[in-house]
Amino acid sequence: MAYQNLLVEKKGAVGVITLNRPDALNALNKALMDEMTLALDDYEADDDIHCIVITGSAKAFAAGADIKEMQPKSYMDVYKEDFITANWERATRCRKPVIAAVAGYALGGGCELAMMCDFIIAADTAKFGQPEIKLGVMPGAGGSQRLTRFVGKSKAMEMCLTGRMMDAAEAERSGLVSRVVPAGELMDEVLKVAQTVADMSLPIAMMTKESVNRAYETTLSEGVRFERRLFHSMFATEDQTEGMAAFVEKRQPQFRHR
Ligand code: HXC
């Protein structure tokens, strides 16, 4: 499929999606997000892909939802089309692991898209923010909720109320990103991490991701119960048999993803 606003490239078992609207700092318009849904659908359906990476350019992961596209909309427009939810949340429904590789601006919807991924690795040039309040609106794709869970109330509240940006070091300190790497090494490093994930058993990685995500959605005791049941179920997989046998036999496991 030929995309107008994305580049897609398979690197072994890693499916890379690069946002590609350079003239608009990768502002997220409907066409781009529709394509993102298709690209994620494709990678999810592709048995050869075990991990997905979403990235942007050196200057911008994405500078937010497309303000020029939003500007003429009325309340009725956004209400009737349920603006944002329809396809924006596709990344959160991915069952395979999804990593955000962020360099430059990740603002508004761009920061929200990065937070929908399973984890974020940032270049030292990354800048995160929820500047919507400066436009007379507020975050609309989960920013006020996910940022608060990532960095806590005080910092999230300050960022959403002032629109100030957080640099990569602050983002790492406050738990928004898993780590920061030099900008020139971002993609090499992220692809290495993605390949490491892709080399694990895919169903086990999917269940692991499901279990970590439960931590956000339920109580500790329910989450622990959920985790234990998933853990038990793994003993019905070939990959558990192989993984433990390989350890005992002092060799590398050959996971067959089942
Ligand atoms: C549409 C955008 C855009 C955006 C940048 N551009 N961000 N177009 N929507 N979000 C366009 C500019 O209009 C300009 O086009 C070109 O990209 C380059 O941008 P500049 O502003 O000239 O670049 P620079 O001076 O380097 O400033 C970079 C910037 C600034 C600080 C990131 O562009 C900026 O503040 N952008 C808006 C950030 C923002 O408010 N994001 C939140 C959006 S609301 P031309 O044609 O003039 O060259 C949102 C709501 C989400 O995300 C809610 C639910 C999804």
TrEMBL record:
SUPFAM superfamilies: ClpP/crotonase (SSF52096). The keyword Isomerase applies. Pfam families: ECH_1 (PF00378). It catalyses: a 4-saturated-(3S)-3-hydroxyacyl-CoA = a (3E)-enoyl-CoA + H2O; a (3S)-3-hydroxyacyl-CoA = a (2E)-enoyl-CoA + H2O. CDD domains: crotonase-like (cd06558). Keywords: Fatty acid metabolism, Isomerase, Lipid metabolism, Lyase. It comes from the Bacteria. GO terms for molecular function: enoyl-CoA hydratase activity; isomerase activity. InterPro entries: ClpP/crotonase-like_dom_sf (IPR029045), Enoyl-CoA_hyd/isom_CS (IPR018376), Enoyl-CoA_hydra/iso (IPR001753), Enoyl-CoA_hydra_C (IPR014748). Its EC number is 4.2.1.17. Belongs to the enoyl-CoA hydratase/isomerase family. Could possibly oxidize fatty acids using specific components. This is enoyl-CoA hydratase. It comes from Parvibaculum lavamentivorans (strain DS-1 / DSM 13023 / NCIMB 13966).
